[in-house]
Amino acid sequence: MVENQIIPRGVKDQRVITTMFNVPRHLFVEPTLRHQAYDDHPLPIGSEQTISQPYIVAAMTEYLDIKKENKVLEIGTGSGYQTAILAELANMVYTIERIDNLSRDAAQRLQQLGYRNVRFKVGDGSLGWKDFAPFDRIMVTAAAEEIPSLLSEQLMENGRMVIPIGKPFSQKLYLLIKNRGRLKQRPLFDCIFVPLVRNKSLKLTD
Questions:
Q1: Residue 174 CA to chain centroid, in angstroms?
Q2: pLDDT digit string (tens) for 112-168?
Q3: Phi, psi (5° rounding) for residue 173?
Q4: Interior angle at CA 99, CA 98 and CA 104, nearest 5
Q5: Which of 29, 84, 106, 164 could disulfide-pair with 143, CB 3.0 to 4.6 Å?
Q6: Residue 28: which of 98, 102, 131, 122 has the closest Cα?
Q7: Is residue 33 part of a domain?
Q8: What is the C-alpha to C-alpha distance for residues 82 and 149, in angstroms, rounded to an integer?
Q9: Rounded CA separation 69/14 (Å)
Q10: Is 52 an active-site residue?
Q11: Which residues contact 16 (CB under 8 A, 6 or more apart)?
């Protein structure tokens, strides 16, 4: 997976590459789908949600440029695969999932795998997690039509957010960097994610 799909497509960060080697993706998918776990496409995980394709996971993680001392907020826990990748790289990960059974299963899975630097919450990810803000990095694994304003507020100065923006089947991944209280945006590539259930938002501006 890493040698055939991720490195050839331009992922260069050695820490991300090593982490993608180390985290066993097959443990985050249904047993009946494990023979497809390392193929380069998303897979269903129940409740009309998916685990992202490996390349997308690696690319989003690389663009976040996570440091070992960073505190990361993840919106959309899903199966917990991306959560595990983040937990390998960061000091602490705070992850929010709106679907209770997915959050519960992910928490149990990561605990069994030995992760102790992750906190889980069931709720509306667009609200962020004010109790632990601000965050050095924010990763959003569901698509919003606009930037959730509370996530912007909870991002630390010089912090980074990776988020898909757009309507269903027409989205673009953005890297947002907070500079003097404003979000500097960089479009990355087209993508398709499940929609983010969100609250009051900010429109993208140049």
A1: 12
A2: 999 999 999 999 999 999 999 999 999 999 999 999 999 999 999 999 999 999 988
A3: -80, 135
A4: 110
A5: 164
A6: 102
A7: yes
A8: 23
A9: 17
A10: yes
A11: 58, 61, 62, 85, 89
Q: What angle do CA 72, 75, 80 make, to 5 degrees?
A: 85
pTM summary value = 0.93
Q: How many residues does the chain have?
A: 206
Domain count, the chain: 1
43: domain range? 2-197
Q: Which amino acid is at 203?
A: K
Distance separating alpha carbons of residues 179 and 192, to the nearest angstrom: 28
* pLDDT exceeds cutoff 90 at 195: no
- In the predicted structure, residue 205 carries a pLDDT above the cut 50: no
102 falls within a domain: yes
Within-domain flag for 204: no
Q: The domain spanning residue 95 has which CATH number?
A: 3.40.50.150
